Amino acid sequence: MRPIVYKTIFPLLLFHFLTLPFLTFAQTWQHQRGREPDQYSKVFALSAQHLFVTGYPKIALYSLNSGQTWLPANVPAEVDFTVSHFLNATTGWTVNEAGQLHQTQNGGQTWAPLPTPVKGYPQFVRVISEQSGLVMTYDEGVVKLYHTQNQGQTWAEADTPEGLWASDLVMAGQTGYLVGLNSIMKTVDGGRTWQNLTYPVHASGSNGFYHVSFIDAVTGWVLDHDNKALLHTTNGGQTWTITALPEDILQNPNLNFTQMQFQSATVGFLVDAQQYIYKTTNGGQTWAKVLDQPGQHLQYLDVSPDGRTVIALSIMTPNTVYVSTDGGDTWQNKRQAFLYHNLMGVTFLNQTHGWAVGDAGTLIRTQNGGETWENINLPAPLDKANFKKVAFADDQHGWVVASNPNALLATADGGQNWQTQTLPAHPQGTEYSLHHVFFLKRAAGSTSPPKGWAVGSAGTILRYDGTTWRAHTETLGIAGMLYNGVFFLNETTGWAVGRNGVIAKSIDGGQTWTRQPSGTLRPLNAVHFTDAQHGWAVGDHDYVLKTIDGGQTWRLQIIPPAFVSHFFDVHFTSPHRGWVTGRRDSHGTILSTTDGGHTWTETEVDNRTYAHSFTDLNHGWAVGRNGAVYRFTDNATGANDQSPAPFTLTLQPEQHTLRNFASTIALQDSVVKAKEWWETDYQFTGMGNSYIEEFAERFEVSGKAAVVGVVSYHTGEVNSQSPNVAEFNVFDIGADGLPSRKLGRKDVWYKEVKVDKTSMSTTFNAPVPVENAFYLSLNFTDYAHGGFEGDNFALLHTSTPDLPVTMR
């Protein structure tokens, strides 16, 4: 594989084009709705109405109505809720796995860092007062207990007996109790010093004290898990009485208590991991089964200070939250309150009024900027339809497109009522489904009819003339043509994008269409223009394209390093400032730019994002998986936004300046590490195990140059019917010496890859600027199912740089 490289004389402007860093500017994305934790980690009943739940990965939710609805907390990226504790309904502390503490003063809705971390992996945190608290850690095989008296500014190690080990810790003011295997300890000075307490030793000689609960400084209970008994004290541990657990509880051969909590001298709860919650109303003398959930792994429980609300959770998939509002006598499964269907489309009319649509008949609206959302109930079968997009021409007239069943809904009264509109038949009689709808905005009080377009499968393009939808088909010669997005600048000029990298333009209101060269074979999902010249299109496999000449030419935009699976939406408020939404594995990604896409800043969010809407450069919303809604705010003016002029090239042939990277490079080890433990490392180069192989060679060139294409040689067999795509990519080189930003790209159908050992020339859509060194790669996507014979590929380096590089 050998690049076609020309020595280039660049004007000064190109130097800036190559060397500007990625920009950052003051902006925030706030998580407003959606996102269930993959696994719950803790629950808190801060009051009868105020509940708080933490989960993995790095998620916290709170409810202000006893679990009827839940909102996401504003959680800094470094907060992971390894251990957490609340002093009261407002003040709480949490510690991440690195020992960094954060505090909330509004019941978990927002969190701020405390100044000084503790050393070691946290086991417990207990808040004693606004200023004081305890953190137990495990550090290099030793358990340590730290206390602070100044809100985490400084920490001191507590004076504890040798061999400290604790299963549970409870504080009641300055008095506290630690329990563990054969150990009950007590403090009366806020955790600075601890003494062992005497307790009744079981006949076996061993006591497994796993859980402790005190309602004040002197009255409490300790659960001897190993011997299935309760120890009870009313004098601060000076003396203890033993109560054996009832026989009906002990008959469970898999008994495993995960939580004990007493709310008063008489009322308490025991949680059995298998499936039960038990309640006592006589201080532990007898117990009644109040919750029975077979197959659930019940883990945590908390009781509100007034005893009215009890919250418990299961960590068995699917995770479940149970809430009782009558003191634990009856329970409701509140998991559904966490679950939302995917949102696929969104539009905001102004900074307060917006609409979003999604799977399973989801049609919701907000009148307060997304703080709360109202469900719109629809009749069958629309209540099961998968809504794709929503568009409003003004505050009264809106449309929604759906599939399964295929439908187009309209409202003429601001969404109070929705009716299905009759869809025209496909000109060839083919069944089709709609994927996108777009309407031009109308000024308030306008009497002109609304103008809109909808696109979908089978080459379908619908035009709305104010009263009727009219059908048009434009397949552009592509079998099964699917349009994913449409945008019109005015009543005559618009663009549609879709399968096979199609970009089509109309200058007569959508009656006729002409294809424009995109340089990609990948599906494109959305398109947006700010004026007749400046436009952007985005799609699968990292594609962000830009035009400055109305679409006559499209240039690949350079995005931040690493793969993003797909981009789904794009919007610009000016030729310089814009946003792109998409996904990166299970996460979402939002890219922003203030220089026309020359450089981008990435914001990662918890959920994949499928669509967004902006009312101006300071207010926007993005929606996505699990019903997620994110709100964007900024205080920008845009006065300093500008885009660099496109570079020009003066090409002069340059010989003998290229050389291959050392043949000893372990291409199979060149990976980008995943951010989370459950994700897979990205295989940038070398052989992997996902049937997606990308091979790269490093080349060096003196000074600045432009890669205009690739000459490659291949041998093997390929199925001429394969629908898959191979990619030739040009990367710059990161600090680690591996491929970093993708500078250029060209797609080739598998069936067009020559495998007869003769040269194959592939030309990029536009010359790719490089400087000093770059990587050239060939990416075979899903070759195992794509028709290549065999399942092994390798790069064969030649000793002479001018000789061809072969691949098989």
From TrEMBL:
Keyword DNA damage in annotation: no
CC annotations in GO: photosystem II
Domain named Photosynthesis system II assembly factor Ycf48/Hcf136-like: residues: 44-156, 174-309, 341-426
KW Cell inner membrane (keyword) present: no
Matching Pfam families: PSII_BNR
CDD domains linked to this entry: Sialidase_non-viral
SUPFAM superfamilies: Oligoxyloglucan reducing end-specific cellobiohydrolase
Family matches, as InterPro entries: PSII_CF48-like_dom, WD40/YVTN_repeat-like_dom_sf
Annotated GO biological process: photosynthesis
Keywords attached to this entry: Photosynthesis, Photosystem II
Protein name: Photosystem II stability/assembly factor-like uncharacterized protein
Organism: Rufibacter quisquiliarum
